């Protein structure tokens, strides 16, 4: 009789996890038993706080800085993950930015490129690195990828941020295409398309009170909490959704 080997600790990488939906997702994944990488870009103190919150309830987390829109930094991030005890099982591509509310006619090429690089190139780079590790075709043991898109991919965000909406449209197509490409290689790829969620992203667009202003338009008449999006992400990452791939969940209160 062979002795059964303890299965390696499952690792989950959440990009942009120092605040908002990413932070809530990191905490919930840790509660679900994953060792979590809290990736962040600039706010070290906030990322450490998320890491410490996880440690407080006995979870495992590492805060790792990397600008995931840069190929070299994504390479270094995944090499660091390779050196950790455990196996990468979950990737949540949560990073997303938007800029000052504007009409398309006033958007510069520099801004458009920055938004697309941060929101789409980052997702491509992290998906590529994860697939190379998770895919059975590459000798991996499978895994789950959850991309954070937005209801903006359908609304187009006129008069606010068409560049952001276009980046989320690209995330939807990438999700569907990659899901079908790796469906028989042990990897499921899905996405969430949140509606209006109370986070600091709206202040970056110049309107901190945006969710409250638009709440009347939401069928449920309220904005969402980051934890309500995180619940959907964790479900898509878990074996509970084992026959779900190429799919989208819209935590949006019906918007
Ligand atoms: P948020 O509060 O603005 O947080 C953004 C996070 O991304 C921060 O942790 C930030 O890290 C990180 N980040 C930004 N650029 C990065 C980079 N280049 N590399 C690594 N990390 C980077 O955002 P949120 O509202 O939680 O949104 C999370 C996701 O949900 C985004 O994809 C967003 O588009 C999507 N979404 C949000 C809403 C909403 O209403 N909030 C609705 C639909 C979709 P630092 O602070 O350390 O720089």
TrEMBL record:
SUPFAM superfamilies, sorted: NAD(P)-binding Rossmann-fold domains (SSF51735)
Matching Pfam families: adh_short_C2 (PF13561)
UniProt entry keywords in alphabetical sequence: Oxidoreductase
InterPro entries (UniProt xref): NAD(P)-bd_dom_sf, SDR_fam
GO molecular function terms attached to this record: oxidoreductase activity, acting on CH-OH group of donors
Family: Belongs to the short-chain dehydrogenases/reductases (SDR) family.
Name of the molecule in the record: Oxidoreductase, short-chain dehydrogenase/reductase family protein
Source organism per UniProt: Reinekea blandensis MED297
